[in-house]
Design goal:
Length: 337
């Protein structure tokens, strides 16, 4: 198991975070993001309590020590199971345990968790209390501003108020309603309108809580705008598709000295990591490289570079050799120089 981080920066790192995203923010993705930003809080994909209670715990909880600060997001609705899984997460070294009350997918609804839990705030409070009672790391909740056609501010206010009493001090709020029927998970990230004002109102009404906002935030100006009113900003798809943006975050959002970092240096370190993963776990480099395909977005030769790293005919080639092939084109060489 990775050693637990001894850093005191976890709360500060909540200032900007990368959202939990199914099939995307696995440990390989998080390793890349950590190369780009030392301070940003990183979240796992959602891990269900069933997967940990009945499945392969190391497969679901293994992560790289370099990833700290890193938070484990759990999906579930049984307080005892969540307490057990939160304890596992703490033992494995995670810096935070987060409860998913925001995912609208039908699969998650069949498990009676995710966004549908917002209909049962007392149950969420019971779940949170069960986790708070057994771990020393922060227990946080990620949720929506409403579900279906419920657009009343009172709905989300009362949800937060109830869960707060159970010992949760940090809420990450996706500023859209979740439609439990009629919209796909993708549409749920795009169709319900963003209502940032409701999140700002939560902070006004609960000034003692840490309130972070999620949803539709895709540039530095918007991050700074939200940080003037809230405690944190969580960024999702834009961080994944344009990972080089993260290289600006430590200086731009955390006040760190700007680092001299190049895309090529990050790519080389990813190649080293791919070789290490292959030797230790037999992980194909393509499972890792898929997360960095946006690293050269906007640069000359980026399309060819992506094609090389996506070419499964090269799966028997070492990662460092693939990198050399990816940079062999004249357009890419000009961009590097």
């Amino acid at each position: 198991m990775p050693e637990k981080s001894q850093s005191n920066q976890q709360l500060d790192s909540m200032r900007v975070s990368v959202a939990p995203m199914m099939d995307w923010t696995d440990r390989h993705c998080r390793f890349l993001h950590r190369l780009l930003s030392r301070r940003t809080l990183l979240y796992t994909e959602m891990v269900t309590t069933g997967a940990l209670v009945h499945g392969d715990v190391p497969r679901h909880l293994r992560f790289n020590a370099e990833e700290h600060p890193v938070a484990l997001q759990l999906g579930g609705s049984e307080p005892a199971d969540l307490a057990h899984c939160a304890k596992l997460g703490e033992e494995w070294g995670y810096d935070e345990i987060n409860l998913n009350c925001g995912c609208p997918s039908e699969r998650v609804q069949r498990g009676a968790f995710g966004a549908c839990l917002m209909q049962e705030p007392q149950l969420v409070a019971d779940c949170v209390k069960a986790m708070v009672d057994v771990v020393d790391v922060p227990v946080t909740v990620k949720h929506r501003i409403g579900i279906d056609k419920t657009e009343s501010y009172a709905f989300v206010r009362d949800f937060v108020g109830t869960v707060r009493e159970a010992g949760c001090n940090t809420f990450i709020v996706h500023a859209r309603n979740a439609w439990l029927k009629g919209l796909s998970p993708k549409q749920n990230r795009e169709v319900p309108p963003l209502r940032y004002a409701l999140v700002h109102r939560l902070k006004h009404d609960f000034p003692d809580l840490r309130i972070s906002i999620n949803g539709g935030i895709a540039d530095n100006a918007e991050v700074h705008s939200q940080l003037r009113l809230l405690d944190g900003v969580m960024i999702g798809r834009e961080a994944y598709h344009n990972p080089w943006w993260l290289a600006e975050w430590d200086a731009g959002f955390f006040g760190e000295t700007e680092r001299e970092l190049t895309r090529e240096e990050v790519e080389r370190q990813m190649c080293d990591y791919m070789a290490r993963e292959s030797a230790e776990y037999g992980t194909p480099w393509s499972n890792i490289a898929r997360h960095m395909l946006g690293l050269r977005n906007g640069l000359p030769g980026a399309r060819r570079w992506r094609q090389v790293w996506s070419d499964h005919k090269l799966k028997g080639t070492s990662p460092h050799e693939v990198m050399a092939l990816a940079h062999a084109g004249e357009a890419v060489r000009e961009a590097v120089n």
